[in-house]
Amino acid sequence: MVFTGPGADEATDDHEGYVAGRYPDGTYSKIWTDVTECAAGTFLAYAPACECGWRGGQDHPLTPAGHLACQRVWVHDHFQRLAPARQIVARLGRALDHEADFLT
After folding, report:
1. What Rg value do the Cα atoms of the chain yield, rounded?
2. Do β-strands 2-3 and 17-22 pair in parallel, antiparallel, or remain unpaired?
3. Is the backbone of residue 90 left (phi > 0), alpha (psi -120 to 50) or beta?
4. Mean pLDDT value across residues 56-79
5. 95 pLDDT tier (thresholds 50, 70, 90)
């Protein structure tokens, strides 16, 4: 997910979020893998992740709801807590919205 909302700049560009898939061996897919296009059985779960190396602590089910949950976790538990994003949120006076402020 790429932040495209007000105040987007190089600092926010360093944090592109994505939904990683957890392989059976316990490793996770990288940013360029579209987990929704992989064959059934490729992954055991989804996980929120960021190109900076951050990954959310909890896996989510391989469902559309699990995929959406990963996007929301990345926005609220990672991106929105970054210094540049906190400044944007303060100016906006509202939380960032994963649908309105981001390109998925």
Report:
1. 14
2. unpaired
3. alpha
4. 93
5. confident
Which residues, 6+ apart, have CB-to-CB distance to 67 below 8 Å?
Answer: 19, 35, 36, 46, 60
DSSP letters, 47-80, are EEEETTS-B-SS-B-SSHHHHHHHHHHIIIIIGG
Q: Can you name the residues that pair with 28 across neighbouring β-strands?
A: 22
Closest Cα partner for 37 from 59, 60, 67?
Answer: 67
Q: Which amino acid is at 39?
A: A
Helix (H, G, I), strand (E, B) or coil at 18: strand
Q: Which amino acid is at 86?
A: R
pLDDT band at 69 (very low <50, low <70, confident <90, very high): very high
Q: Which domain holds residue 20?
A: 2-103
pTM over 0.70: yes
* Domains: count for the chain: 1
